[in-house]
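Data card: per-record layout.
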Amino acid sequence: VLWYQGESNTGRAVEYLKLQQAQIMDWRQKFRKPELPFYFVQLPNFMDANYIPSESQWAQFRESQLKALSTPHTGMAVIIDLGEWNDIHPDNKKDVGERLALIAKNKLYGKNIVYSGPIFKDAKIDNDKIILSFEHIGSGLQSIDGDELREFAIAGDDKKFVWAKATIVGDKVVVHNEQIKEPKYVRYAWADNPDVNFYNAEGLPASPFRTDY
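The structure for this 213-residue chain is written out next.
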């Protein structure tokens, strides 16, 4: 199954995780295939850009989709870079299909290929910095355009997020902001329409995430 979720659920982001998992289980039961592969597409970037860290129902919804990966025999294509601010149905369908195909080639057909961009793994606080680790780093992490990494925000206990300086150090990303002496939380691409440039060397974008659940 290849599933592209409609956007009308974005107002019920928390509920959606249960709905998505229930749908997968229900279809597997109905088709009598308990391991039926189910590969879905995370919602793209859309609407106006926001130039300060803020809340986003679309970001919350993408988070629910990311959590649905805990269901066995699933995969998620990240397309946070393929949307259009003024078109809820973006034109670029080819790259969406190709990213889904990478998942199928690896998970279903056993090809030894990188099929996902970086997925957040854990965060460790080191004095005034937070060190982020990822799965699916491929051949390495990169800024796809050579500029400093964008869309990373950091906060202390008060959860008042400010933009962070994010630096790739080996296979990790180190984030900090001199104003936040005791950082606790990080968000990445937490917006309706973030301007992302964090990818792995294979050219696949990182999924948005947050650590302040």
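Known properties of this structure: The two ends are 30 Å apart (CA to CA). The chain has a mean pLDDT of 96.

See the next section for split statistics.
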